[in-house]
Structure formats: structure tokens, C-alpha cells
């Protein structure tokens, strides 16, 4: 039993040593151009409070939505949609063209 | 309708920092092999099945009446957050709570009392859990259909086979009872774990629980999206991968060591759903009271707290699993193979734990 406690303690100490580094203050806006037709989703890092500007193009009319941030825009063919917003909480947020085409994942730290 | 994280909720957790993942994996590896050398050399934990609960049918009646009053928009939160994860947490803390709460168990009051076929074992439960995790991770819109199907199958099973049906074939109850063995309030968790009856389908239940949480990580990454493989195939492949690695590593024991995977399941589940309960749990309660515009407080989902809970839960689960498997292996193996015989399982557990941590990092 004592061994078990020693192991658990070692584990907690290790976990405690590795808190996440402090995020730097927001820089300029994060600007991304995304295409629904050639979606190649990636993770893109952003900082909490940073302005985000997404320009989305599509051949077909489609709704674009940022999960967890209630921003919705319609893309018409030949008329890109521009979504401007700031994410004021941390987490990973999907930017999707409906019904389920993932365009980019915003990793907000 | 878009596919949401865990059926409800719009936000995923941040990926774990890589250094934390590597440290966690190193600790798991080190702890496992230290345990092998340092822990006791004679089995210590005799099986002790936690005492049977009194049948509390008025509680179930109360839950059944309560469910009628649940507003329609609250159902996804009720099921995906409070039932799936809330019941899991309560089970780890207090014991098998679903057995007490499940209103469908009322069906066993009017049973025909046929004997439940031994060969079926936990297979219906494994299938039910697979169906539920498919709804949760692939097709949340199918929830009403799932609930109707679940109710019909379990009422029918309960009427035909009585209580035994729920103990062995109801996925939620099997899940809750397995996790309930970890409850410190009901005696030594290790003794309760060893007492897990080895029935056909037990390994399948564990594989579904582990595989589905693994796919939960994989399926939400952009890399997975780029592959354009159907989510259903991914879920089934993840479950098959867990079963396909467990069975060869434990081939001489079969299901005899499956109980030692339960702490790993619990660790995974807590790591994956902690922030969901912390944030969407608030919304679930608000929805139950009919408040639709409620904005949950994010304090408990802060990155440092979530990452600590995730790594802590996965490693604690790993440690409990290693101790529990070690003790059981001593009983099952001849003395000459006490050390070497444990190595395949230990390697497998380190694999699951570091794999699980890596998936929390993966993009």
C-alpha cells in the first residue's frame, strides 16, 4: 500500500510541475481564407480575445457556422462570406460549412 | 444539423500540451514496471462482492414520473451529460446507481421469470453500449429513436427474464455496475473488482467503452476529417482495435483480467467528459427547469484545470489497473511465471494509457 501512495504522490508532483505556459497578449487579428469546395481542415492557434477574420468561398450557396461562438454567415456562389468575431474563452472550436464540412479548427489558448 | 461534440455542447477541450503527454506516458511506464518489481508477491485481494442493494422501486417510480415532466429540449443534455457521464461519476463515487434509478427496471415487477441464457452473457449490453456511443459520437439526431428502442428492448427483456436481464444485458446498468466496483464507499475497490463475474461479452463491453472514448478523440481531429472515412467505420475500428489487442495480450486468461481494465475505462471517461459535465451540466440543469437561454460559467473548464484532471484521471486509472491486474495475475499464474507472465498485459496497459494521452494531444 505504501508503494502505491509513493507512486501516486510522484505522479501528482509530476503533474503539478507541468502547468501550461501563460498565453501572450493578443496580437493583430487572425486572418484566414477558407474554401468549402477544397476543404483541407487544419488546427490554427489563436489567443483568447484575439480578433478572427474568416473569408469563406464556395461554388454552392452554403451556411458557415462557428461552433461555440454564435456566428453564422451565408456564402453565395462567387460571393464570399466574411465572418468577424473574437473568441473570449479557451477551447477548440470547429468552423463548419453545413451540414458537416469541417473548414478549420480554432485552438484558442 | 451539425454533429456536435458528445451529442451536445459546441466546444472541445484544448489539445493536451505535448510535454504533459510525454511525462504522463513516462510516469505510466515507470510506475508499471516499478509496481511489477515492488508490489507484493502473493495475491492479497480475495473477491468480495459488494452486498446486494434493497430493491427500491418507489425511487424508480419517482424517476419515471419525473421523466414525463422533462421538457423536450432538455432530453439531449439529460441523456448525453447527466445520464451518460453523471451516472458514471456517481457510480465511481457511490456504487451502481443506475440499478437504483433506472425506471425501466419496474418491468421486472411483472416478470415471467424465464431463466436468462448464460451464453448471452453481457453481449446485449455490449451491443446496446455500441449503439449508444454511435448515437452520441456519429448521429446525435437519432437519439429519440435510440431511446424508444432502448425502452422497448429493456421492458421486454425485463418482463421475460426479470432482474437478471438488467444485471447482465442492460448496457447502462452493466457500465454503472462495473464503475460502481471502484466506489470507495462500498469496501475495498480491489476486492470488488476481482469479484467481477467473468461472463461472455465482458471483454466486448470493455472494448466498446475504451474504443468509443478513443474514437471520440480521433473523430474530432482535422486529420480524421481529411481522411473522409465514415465515422461509423472509425468507431467500429477503434472498438475492434481494443478487443484485438486485449485478446492476444491476455490469451491465456481470456476475460479473467477484464476487470482490471475497468479503472482505465473510468480514467478515460473522466478525462473525456469532465469539462462537458462542468459546463454543459449547468445547461442541463437549466434546461430541466425550462430555461433555454442560460449561458454556463466556464470557470471549471480552465485549461490548466482540465489538463490536470485529464492527465490525473488517466494516470490514476492506469495505476489502479496495474495493481489490480498484478494481484489477479499472481493468482492465475504458476509461481515460475509470476513476473514474465504479467509483462504482455503491462505492455498493453502502458499502450492504452500512452495511446489515450496521445489522442488527447493529437490533431
Automatic annotation (TrEMBL), chain A:
Q: Signal sequence: where?
A: 1-23
Query: Where does this protein have coiled-coil stretches?
Result: none
Q: Which SUPFAM superfamilies match?
A: Cupredoxins (SSF49503)
Keywords in alphabetical order: Signal
The lineage's top-level taxon is Bacteria
Q: What is this protein called?
A: Cupredoxin-like protein
Species of provenance: Saccharothrix carnea
From TrEMBL, chain B:
Task: Print the keywords alphabetically.
Answer: Membrane, Transmembrane, Transmembrane helix
The reply on keyword Transmembrane helix is yes
Residue ranges spanning the membrane: these are 20-41, 57-75, 81-100, 120-137, 143-162, 190-212, 232-249, 261-279, 299-323, 343-362
- Provide the protein name: Uncharacterized protein
Please, which domain of life does this record's source organism belong to? Bacteria
Organism of origin is Saccharothrix carnea
Coiled-coil positions are none
Asked if the record carries the keyword Membrane, the reply is: yes
